[in-house]
Amino acid sequence: MIRRHLFRLPLAACLAAASLAAHAQDWPNKKPISLVVPFAAGGSTDATARLLADKLGKEIGQQVIVDNRAGAGSNLGAAFAAKATPDGYTILFATSTIATNVTLYKNMGFDLRKDLVPVSQFALIPNVLTVNNDLLVKSLQEFVDYVRQKKGPVNYGSAGSGSASHLSGALLNSMAKGDMVHVAYKGGAPANTDLIGGQIQAVFSPMVEVLPFIDSGKLRALAVTTKGRSTRLPNVPAVSEVLPGFEVALWNGVLAPSATPAPVIEKLAAAIQKVAQDPDVRKALTDQGSTPVGNSPAQFKDILTREIDKWGTLVKLSGASVD
Predict the structure, then answer these.
(1) CB-based burial, 240-262: b 16+ in 10 Å, e otherwise
(2) Going by C-beta distance under 8 Å and a sequence separation of 6 or more, which residues neighbour residue 164?
(3) C-alpha angle 104/130/234, rounded to 5°?
(4) What is the DSSP letter of 32?
(5) Cβ atoms of 53 and 66 closer than 8 Å
(6) Which domains occur in the chain, in start order?
(7) What pLDDT score was predicted for residue 227?
């Protein structure tokens, strides 16, 4: 009896693999694709995901539906996607938060390295160091000197403990050998509200979220956190111009359940690469300060591996914890 069951197990596995292979040939004709967005509707990540969903659907000839599943620092939606049937009809729109969470959370509800496979990175987004207009610094160098020499209090706000804005500030504070104090908020919006009001002195924010305040003159932009300058704010230096080696880039991209057939991954990646080169998409992304990417699964995998290590180092440096 035991021998019969042992025989059935590999047979069942073979049948399941054959079924997925058959579905791969038909993909994406069977049904609409669900693009899981692990953040609430209405935010900047959701808007970018909807831009991708619309153009991707037209590229592959199948509807792509955004499925917002926010919670647990994006882990809720990511875990849902990781455990979905690996047939290419449920995919994840992830951000750099997913790499941070590997170190930040003791239990994400899934194993990023084992349960999800990178498909294609979609865009890079710089953080921007902004300060209150009353702060007596006009440049990045002056800000670094101000922090180093402790000329006055510098309380920097963030979207929460372990967020990219928190980790960006922790890295700058460490490299500048300063004494900035972190103030965690429940999201970037209240942090920027208090920055404008003068309750705090600085915030690192995703460019897409803070551009309206910069353009209107409500906040002063001192630097971007990416390796080089942004074409959207060409007169704003990169932090690395004053603190060599500083680099923090946010990103978003698509991942799929790890057992998704390779032909589906390849088709999906090729389609996303075309979307990233679409003139309308490129304009929409660059207008908000993002840089279109559209790379291969192998390239995205290499990047994700490095990102897990880098963000892990920053989490430990900051002392951030959510568990």
Answers:
(1) bebbeebbbbbbbbbbbbeebbe
(2) 96, 97, 100, 127, 204, 206, 248, 250
(3) 110
(4) P
(5) yes
(6) 32-125+249-318 (3.40.190.150), 127-241 (3.40.190.10)
(7) 92
8 A C-beta contact, residue 271 and residue 294 = no
How distant, in Å, are the alpha carbons of 74, 201, 268 from that of 183? Answer: 21, 10, 41
pLDDT at 10: 63
Q: How high does pLDDT run on average in the chain?
A: 93
> With contact defined as beta carbons under 8 Å apart, do 222 and 140 qualify?
yes
H/E segment holding residue 124 = strand 116-132
pLDDT digits (tens, 9 = 90+) for 50-78: 999 999 999 999 999 999 999 999 999 99
pTM score above 0.85: yes
Residue 151's pLDDT band, with cuts at 50, 70 and 90, is: confident
CA distance 275 to 31: 20
